[in-house]
Amino acid sequence: MALAALVTLGLNLCAAGLAQQQPSPVPDAPAPQSAPPLTGVDGSPITPGKGEANDPTAPSSSSTSQQATPSSQAPSSQGKDEFQAKPPEMPATGEGAERDATLIRLNVNFVEVPVTVKDSKGKLVPGLTYRDFRIFENDTREPISYFTVDPFPLSIAFVIDQSLTSDVMAKVDNSLDAIQGALTPYDEAAVFSYSNGAQERTGFTGAQSNRLPAVLALTKSSGTEMLVPINDGPFASCNIRENGNCVDPNLQAGRSAGNGTFITIPKEIHTLNDAILAAAKELSTRPIGRRRIIYVISDGKEYGSKATYKEVVRYLQTNKIAVYGTAVGTSALWGEGYVSRLHLPFTMYDNRLAGYVIQTGGTLDSERNLNGIEKSYQAIAEEARNQYTLGYYTHEPFIDGKYRKIDVRVDRPGLEVIAKPGYYPSGQDAR
Q1: Which of 377, 312, 364, 360 is nearest to 338 (CA)?
Q2: Nearest residue to 239 via CA among 298, 381, 247
Q3: How far is CA 136 from the centre of its chain?
């Protein structure tokens, strides 16, 4: 019995040792997990290969965006805008200009409208949202598809009138040194001048480069003198003289300038149209995504240009160029500045600059003294840079070449809205 018990005990110990040497069981691998669904910026679902909000079973982007909109941006007490059901694309701060250029390239029916809003005191109005704006093309309201308040870099062409009288020209010459202070390192500038014909002083260069002030210094001029034709007396053989010399040998007594019985005053030459067109052609080559600005410093007189007013306005509206200006001389006088906008047939245009400003959505500042002219550079550059940029997709055939009327409204009383009144479609947007 003792031997049997010992054998049984040994077998049990061997079995226990074998059980301890067996490896522990391997746990099961984790079950595969499905990837989270893709969502857009506004929370709407994105189907791979189809894009955003194409899944008929997914919730609409309008309901999703309404749920994600903070209560602080809810519509005002005027009621919910059923027309603007889906909010426009609003890029992050600092990405507005880059995204704007992409939209223009990819969507040939996209229309960009810079808008300036001022209060009753002429101050810029900040803090508006896309819900405050209404935009109409050819009297048909368009949903706003793009909205940003980011400042845009400027490509600005300065056009300086050198046909001003000597006293006004002296003020303009002294103010040119303040131009560079109104620009930022991200801007670029070109300089043009005109009297009897347009002249390009420099192409586009960095706004804070050393080249710009040097060119502006070379653009300064002595202006013109108001000479009175003489048709009788010792100087009758040459009716207009300057420093004792005949200005034009063709002006002889009894010919173009008249004689003792009649007098014909020679016409003044102010080629404003040609100068703006020359600046616009240079601006049309600048990359999209920059504000294209022509800044004119002039009294607005126009006579003797080869280009017509309608041709230049159409070129400006086709290439998205806005004209801003500082009116000086007689156009800046109170009362006379408004009367000079009227035109009598067969006479010189006394203020053609105002028409360019209105037709392109710019602003015009009238200044008489040096301090006012210098401040106008800063004020207008600030307005051109800090605008509301609205975008929409036109319902019209984009390349038919017909003029489209634009009307921008703000749903708040007492505000002045400045925007271009219309545009011509451009084939450049189809590239």
Answers
A1: 364
A2: 247
A3: 19
Beta-carbon contacts of 191 under 8 Å, excluding residues fewer than 6 positions away, are 157, 158, 160, 200, 201, 202, 212, 215, 216, 219
Lowest mean pLDDT among 25-39, 109-123, 206-220: 25-39
* Pairwise CA distance, residues 100 & 290, whole Å: 9
Task: Answer whether residue 3 is part of any domain.
Answer: no
Range of the domain at 276: 154-225+268-383
Cα separation of 258 and 251, whole Å? Answer: 9
What is the residue whose two structure tokens read 């502006």? 216
Strand partners, 140: 137
- pLDDT tens for 353-376 read 989 999 999 999 988 899 999 999
Q: pLDDT digit string (tens) for 35-50?
A: 666 666 566 666 655 5
Residue 62: predicted pLDDT: 42
Tokens representing 394?
A: 């036109």
pLDDT number for residue 68:
39
Asked if residue 272 and residue 193 are part of one domain, the reply reads yes
- Domain co-membership, 195 together with 286: yes
- What mean pLDDT is predicted for residues 146-171? 92
179: in domain: yes
- As for how many domains the chain has, the answer is 2
List of residues 6+ apart from 19 with CB closer than 8 A:
none
What CA–CA distance (Å, rounded) separates 392 from 109? 8
**pTM for the full model?**
0.70
Q: Is residue 411 part of a domain?
A: yes
The verdict on residue 44 lying in a domain is: no
Q: Residue 213's pLDDT is what?
A: 94
For residue 279, give the CATH number of its domain: 3.40.50.410
- 103 and 204 both lie in a single domain: no
Residues 189 and 91 reside in one and the same domain: no
First-to-last alpha carbon distance for the chain, in angstroms, is 106
Span 247-274, pLDDT tens digits: 665 555 545 555 556 555 667 788 999 9
